[in-house]
Structure formats: structure tokens, C-alpha cells
Amino acid sequence: MVLSFTERGIYCPAGDFYVDPWKPVPRALITHGHADHARPGHGAYLCTHGAAPVMRHRLGDIRLDTIAYAETRQIGSARVSFHPAGHVPGSAQIRIEVGGEVWVVSGDYKTTPDGLSEAFEPVRCHSFISECTFGLPVFTWEPQDIVINQINQWWAANASAGITTMLGAYSLGKAQRLLAAIDPSIGPILTHGAVEATNAVLRGQGYALPETVPVMPDTDHKAYPGALVLAPPSALGSAWARKFGPQSTGFASGWMRLRGVRRRRAGDRGFVISDHADWPGLLDAIRTTEAENIYVTHGYTDIFARYLRETGYNAQIVATDYTGEVLDPAPDEDGA
Question: β-strand 164-168 against 228-231: which pairing, if any?
Fold first, then answer.
């Protein structure tokens, strides 16, 4: 086999490297910068040029090499290349070829363009390792422009009523995707420190984001009437958030598709928008790879693998430490 599944992570014997390992290893190839895929403690790292600044921001002074999309690199007897995954800026699928056999580790991915991340590119292979965070038919996403219009209307109505709009969005990917798409003419945009730190990294890479005001301990909240505040979901309802006075809260996540989740979050609004593929996106991605073997790693693995087997694929479940989108991540963890 080109890849094997070990207690440290996905291992390539021919190149003596791991992909997104969850325990310290000598050499790690990283699909993207979310904390469940890019972990501290490895001897050396390889990622795309676009993922590197966030990796350095989060992991500090690491031994990091970078590679361009579609560039081929020989590592031992394995030929390796990185291809856009559409998940967050700089995210990649990793193609590994050994002796004419091709495997692709997709990491996390999204098949519909979002206007910020590099668009997903199908990669043909014999074996495809896929997430299935939202691997149920109930998870289907509306076009982004429809959801962004819903957010704009909600924000504008709150601004007219004189209350703050508090929107929970993950600090890497989701928050910047929303920033790039919403209408900044509605009012000022304030950001939690975790969001603003990532904004600064991406702005430094040339990503166009509207002006934001980072919330500091001495920020006068009354000086920004009609503001939209972007913060990690974990910050909503906290003492930090309550300082903004009368407010309407909302969450931006694929999990908002489930009514029970929306009720438990106790927010005023739930916006269904995710940085992971929905059910049709997962199936389309797998179909376009033309892969014979599918390995599903995290999400609704039992249901998704069974469906794939029933439709003719050789599908297996692989246990990993990846989390996909979770409801209450820490500020630097993944979300959709």
C-alpha cells in the first residue's frame, strides 16, 4: 500500500513521511492550518505557500518548507504534489504516487467556490481518503450569495433597531470568508482578537478584506452603533460579549441545518454556511476522482461508508484524531 494508517497518523513508507499526523513525527506533510491537522511537535513540516503564514502564526518557530500547488516533489521513492482543497486559504489535497499507484489525502475540503479560498480541484487517483463531516443527505448548502444576503438583512435590521449584531464564526477561514462577502457599508465591523489575528495574517498575504476594528480592553462599544461583531462561537454569551449591551446573536455553521442544534445554541439566528462539503459535494468529489477505494476518516463514517458500498465503491472507515467541524471549538480549531 502507498499509505498505511498508524497510531501516529497516515504514513507513507516509500517517502518516510506522515500526512497530518496527530502525534509527533520526524516529517509531516500538512493539508491546512487548522489545529486538528497542523499540530506542534513535528521535526519538519511541508505545506503550501498559502498555508505557511498561518502555520507559522499558530505553531511558532517550526522547521517549515513550502510548495506551490501542482508542483511535483520527489520524497524518497514517492512523488508528491499539493492541489487546492477549497476548504480555507492555502488548504490542499495531497497526491502521492508510488510505482504508478496514486493515493490522494484530501484533508478537509469544500467543492463550491467561496470567493476567498482557492477553488477545489478534482484529482484522479486509485485511492481517495475523504472526510465526511456532513455525510448525511440532510446536509445540503444553499448558494453562498443567498446566505450572505440573509446575514446582511439581519445586520441591517439590527442596526436600524440600535442593537449590536453578534455573529459566531471560526477564526480561520469562516470569519474571513464572511468578511470578504458581506456589505461593509451597513456599519462598522468589530472583531475578537482571535479573528483579527488571522485577518492580519491573510491581509499580509494579499487577501482583500474590509476594514475591521479589533476589540481591545478599552474599546468604547458605544462608539460603534450598528456594529457587526465577529467572534469565535465560544465567545458568544460570555462576559466579553455581554459588554456590547443589547444585541442579537447568530451562528454561521453547517450544523445550523439541524433544528435541534439551532435551539440548543439559543441564538437568535442560525446561518447554514460551511467550509466543508455537503452531501452532494462529498459524492461529487468522490465521483470525479474515479477512485476505486475510498477511506472515510471523520464525520458520519458508518452511514457514509455504507452508502458508498451500496453504490459500488470499496469503502472503508479509518479511525483518526481529526474533528472536522465541531460546535464549540477553541478559537484556533476547525469549524465550518
Answer: parallel
Residues 8 and 86 in one domain: yes
Q: Does residue 237 lie in a domain region?
A: yes
* Residue 91 to residues 241, 263, 293, Cα–Cα distance (Å): 31, 32, 23
* Alpha-carbon span 244 to 156, nearest angstrom: 17
Q: Are residues 10 and 100 in the same domain?
A: yes
Sheet holding 247-252, edge to edge: 213-214, 189-191, 228-231, 164-168, 247-252, 269-271
Q: Please give the chain's pLDDT, 336 residues, in tens.
A: 899 999 999 999 999 999 999 999 999 999 999 999 999 999 999 999 999 999 999 999 999 999 999 999 999 999 999 999 999 999 999 999 999 999 999 999 999 999 999 999 999 999 999 999 999 999 999 999 999 999 999 999 999 999 999 999 999 999 999 999 999 999 999 999 999 999 999 999 999 999 999 999 988 888 999 999 999 998 988 899 899 999 999 999 999 998 767 666 667 899 999 999 999 999 999 999 999 999 999 999 999 999 999 999 999 999 898 887 665 554 444 444
User: Distance (Å, rounded) from C-alpha 273 to C-alpha 256?
Assistant: 8
Sheet holding 4-5, edge to edge: 4-5, 10-12, 17-19, 27-29, 44-48, 64-67
Residue 281 in any domain: the answer is yes
Residues 230 and 245 in one domain: yes
Contact partners, residue 43, CB within 8 Å, separation at least 6: 24, 25, 26, 27, 28, 63
The C-alpha angle with vertex 129 and arms to 126 and 132, in degrees rounded to 5, equals 135
Give a yes or no: residue 330 inside a domain: no
Query: Are 101 and 216 within one domain?
Result: no
Q: Which domain holds residue 91?
A: 4-139+275-317
Same domain, yes or no, for 171 and 196?
yes
